[in-house]
């Protein structure tokens, strides 16, 4: 492998676009991408491709790739690995950034390894923004530790080798998501109900008192907005989280419910640009009232 490998990005949503810019800044000159939405010239990934060479199909994008980075939605993780495996150059590194259950990771790893690739799981342990490629990531699998030196050259300074097997890094990520995505869902439901009763200020004041040091008005606005922007993707992730919890021998009551609320939020993504929390809550309540006729959420 050359010092700066030929890189192929599978998935060109928010994460793929951020990594494309950062890899180019790190000096990668051979960068290709494939996204199912490239078939639509008006899609977000198509409009954002810019200087990145878009493959005419997955096989075209993967031709000659030494490092493949998969950044699709959770529901597409295994399908992306299967698609890549059909055209994966022998010995290529396959860095899987997707937020999925350990069992899903192991299935994807088996597909990639059977095709002659070298699979590495990467669990992103913070939002991709604002840290971008320096975000903390836990790596897993037998190729994780050897990959670290190249990762540093490419700007992935927050990566660390976490486990020599595939699965533990994903388990850590999924258990974190129980809390983080759960907080988004809880804040959404709590403040929508509170706004319905006209008591949202009292609820926020009590949170500021119980958990001092946080601006809960601002935090609630941020978390609810992120849920609206990425609710569909988060719902897919939370269904993978539910599988993870089940694998630990527990009933995934909270995670399964969170997936439903995140799906609900994702259906209202058009409201994500409302900058005022009260107005945002009112508009969300109005959409539900229009849909159900009784205002129930």
- Helix-strand category: alpha/beta
The sequence of SSEs as H and E is: EHEHEHEHEHEEHEHHHHH
Largest sheet entry: 8 strands, mixed
User: How many domain units?
Assistant: 2
| Sequence stretches where pLDDT stays below 50 over 5 or more residues | none
In short:
The chain has 297 residues and is of the alpha/beta class. It is 53% helix and 11% strand. An eight-stranded mixed beta sheet has the order 3-2-1-4-5-6-7-8, with helices on both faces.
Describe the fold and architecture.
The protein has 297 residues and is an alpha/beta fold. The chain has 2 domains: 7-166, NAD(P)-binding Rossmann-like Domain (Rossmann fold, 3-Layer(aba) Sandwich), CATH 3.40.50.720; 170-292, N-(1-d-carboxylethyl)-l-norvaline Dehydrogenase, domain 2, CATH 1.10.1040.10. It has helices at residues 14-25, 44-48, 58-62, 77-85, 102-114, 144-153, 168-197, 200-210, 216-247, 253-266, 277-292; strands at 7-10, 31-34, 53-54, 67-70, 93-96, 118-124, 137-140, 159-163. The protein has an 8-stranded mixed β-sheet with strand order 3-2-1-4-5-6-7-8, sandwiched between helices. Helix 7 (168-197) crosses helix 8 (200-210), helix 7 (168-197) packs across helix 9 (216-247) and helix 9 crosses helix 10. The chain is globular and about 60 Å long.
